Amino acid sequence: MDKLLSLAFDNIASKDSQKIRKGLRQIEGMLAQICLSNGKSTPSKPQHRRNASAINLGEQSTQTSKKLGELSDDLAFREFFRLQEGFQWNVAIRVADCLERLLGMHSDGQLDLLILSALSNLQGLLLLHPPSRTIFGREIYMNLLLDLLDPYNCPAIQSSALLVLVTALLSAPQNTRQFENMDGLLTVTTLFKDEETTQNVKLKLLEFLYFYLMPEAPAPIASAPNTAMGLQRSPSKLAGAFERRSSTISGDEGGVASKSNIKSQQEKQHMLGRYLSNVDALVQDLQETAPFTSVAC
Question: Which residues form a coiled coil (predicted)?
Fold first, then answer.
């Protein structure tokens, strides 16, 4: 896996759009191999095969998504998780750096497709390896997501950036504080109130605001670690493991945010109220409908 990652990293670090596309597909293929389980598969037709430079997914006609409980016993996932603990092989950092370079290139339709591909990969990486979310506690990476929400970006990029932003803030209060400190609420609400913003993007922005207003939880999400015990480990042990891994990735002394970084729903309601006049109605609707009952911010 490290050889494939090395090849993919070289490609997405290029200034050549074809090589970048190739590298992003290699990462996508790796994630697909981790997340998909083989059924009674038959070789796919040649025209349906992925580029040979990516992982061979030729026998995937009947593949289905693996359940979370199955990942702890999956050798590919455990190897992937192990490699993500260090800076050298962390894919989220490399894809985020690739996104930054893409934003600096001449904008065209093909470039937008590369940005969408990178965002899709990044969202999957943050879901598969929650400790990687700590990179968005750094100004450079949070600013990258906020730049993608600028009005000059196409609606598809804005929508994808919002999905990555939600994933980056999920169970990461320290990232939420960075988002607030960098005027993230101003960015989101300005886009929401812009008459040029499409209705589909406005709907996703509203969903984001509901998500933001949810009560915060200090503990990280339980995810399958790369140990023999897998998902059978207790949440407290998982939290400790994620703290150590998060600090390794980010290069910081600390890991998971302390309780001092947690803000109450009322505090966030007050902050959002600086930019929107109907926040009370949003909170009331959130309490009545409970759209994210299984999610801890």
Answer: none
